[in-house]
Amino acid sequence: MKQLSWLVASLGVLAGCATQAPSPSGRYDQDQDAAPTLSPAAIAQLANLENPQVVELSPSARGNPASYTVRGMDYAVLPSSEGYLEEGNASWYGEKFHGHSTSSGEPFDMFTLTAAHRSLPIPVFARVTNLANGKSTIVRINDRGPFHSDRIIDLSFAAAVKLGFHENGTARVRVQTISKDENTFVVQVGEFTDLGEARLAEGQLAATSGAAVKVVKLLGSGLYRLQIGPLSSGAPIERLKALVATLGLGQVDIRPLNKLNHQRPPLCRYSW
Question: Is 132 a residue whose pLDDT tops 80?
Fold first, then answer.
């Protein structure tokens, strides 16, 4: 993702010192894991990282044995990630492992939204929610771990920042796998009684957003709304919200495509 490359390049400037990847000459260059030394501005940038776009992924040629053993404990890899949902403790990993190979073979980057899991097939996308504060992010699982019985997932430092527990060791979370179809959504805005006014707003929003926009009718009423999408988790939703506010189209309702029925939006709002 281009924005992540830009972020990693800028972190050293914001922090006043560059965080360099460890030398590949040894397995690890430090005994204890640690957070990178970053300025408040750099932490804020990590907290606002866009979620990765959920796409179809091919199973990794590495990291997916039927079973494996670590520290005398046997683990099994699930044949499928479909329907996986679990709650438990999450931890995070950072500088000690930065730049070293993950179980998938790619280098670990603590500034991207990735994670390690003991049994899910890799790679796979999952939504992780901090149950203490409601913050949520999407991660791509590309590594194995954590090998502690009281933890269910090990997140990158960036993911821990997004979930608001990077200053702590662990947090209680919910982990739920997601597929490309499950992560597709639409945005609905505005509410019109006149179809002509809805069509006019449709043209304005399409011209300024560059996105696909159409008028939809709410079931059981004479009201019309503007629908944008379908979109994926990588869409610039914050920019879209700002544009909608500028056009005076009211609150943004984000609705999963597989649950769409053009009825009035639910009281709860989806946060991406």
Answer: yes
